[in-house]
Design goal:
This protein is α/β, with parallel strands linked by helices. It folds into 2 domains: 167 residues, P-loop containing nucleotide triphosphate hydrolases (Rossmann fold); 66 residues, no CATH class. The protein contains 9 helices and 11 strands. The chain has a 7-stranded mixed beta sheet, with helices on both faces. Strands 3-2-5-6 form a 4-stranded antiparallel beta sheet, with helices on one face. The two termini are 20 Å apart.
Length: 250
């Protein structure tokens, strides 16, 4: 990995991954990945489809286990069930119950986090307003468009105000105006103490992150702040820097 991050993190990071390898059978899909995310910061993982971003965040969130290496979240070794309940996770594929309404989906997931009563009702209203679905609260999810399902999935990930938020391509299929609104909310959450990892292949989104990890073919090819990476490669844009590190699609 070419690490251009000049910042020294003196306190323990919120999230750390050390020497992560992952095999599926005999095929290795992650190669010696190490990274750290300080508390109340946003890490963007940039890479093409199939680069290993989703596999890595599944390992960080405790959904999957590394073949070797170690992940710590909130000073606990992963996977650990008590820590997983403190992570808001939004997958690429929407894990929703189509025959239920959006409200029923939200109530179900909120109850899993012991969020009930008035607080549950309040949070449902807040997250549905954030993703601009308040008028569709009573609608069955199977009647939602693909973009609406993505927005509902994001609302579910946010429902319990988790200290760690991991979002896999959250803005795919979402219009630019709402995407800006979502990023404003992510900044607000960060300011309130939430640590966020977001995967994306949208170049302008990674510019919004505090730190950036570039992944290609299961390897972390560069890391640092967006400006550090651009300066290190004499690039005007993140896209140019990604190409500099060999990130051009095959």
């Amino acid at each position: 990995m070419q690490d251009v991050n000049s910042k020294t993190i003196t306190s323990p990071p919120c999230i750390s991954a050390r020497s992560i390898d992952k095999f599926f059978g005999k095929k290795q899909v992650l190669f010696d990945i190490s990274l750290e995310v300080p508390y109340s910061q946003i890490l963007g993982l940039l890479g093409p489809s199939g680069s290993g971003k989703t596999t890595l965040i599944k390992i960080i969130s405790g959904i999957d286990a590394a073949s070797s290496g170690e992940v710590n979240v909130l000073n606990e070794k992963m996977p650990k069930l008590s820590v997983m309940s403190k992570i808001g996770y939004m997958a690429q594929s929407d894990a929703l119950y189509g025959d239920l309404t959006a409200e029923e989906n939200l109530k179900f997931f909120a109850s899993m986090y012991n969020l009930n009563g008035t607080k549950q009702k309040q949070r449902i209203a807040e997250v549905m307003q954030l993703v601009d679905l308040s008028d569709h609260l009573k609608k069955q999810v199977k009647q939602y468009s693909g973009g609406m399902k993505r927005r509902l999935s994001l609302a579910i990930a946010l429902i319990h105000k988790p200290p760690v938020l991991i979002l896999d391509e959250p803005t795919v299929g979402i219009d630019p105006v709402l995407r800006k609104s979502i990023w404003n909310e992510l900044y607000k959450l960060k300011d309130e103490g939430t640590t966020i990892i977001i995967t994306t292949h949208v170049m302008d989104e990674v510019e919004k992150c505090d730190y950036l990890g570039m992944i290609r073919d299961g390897k972390l090819i560069a890391s640092g702040t967006p400006n550090e990476i651009k300066n290190a490669t004499a690039s005007n844009t993140i896209e140019e820097a990604f190409l500099y590190y060999g990130g051009a699609s095959k």
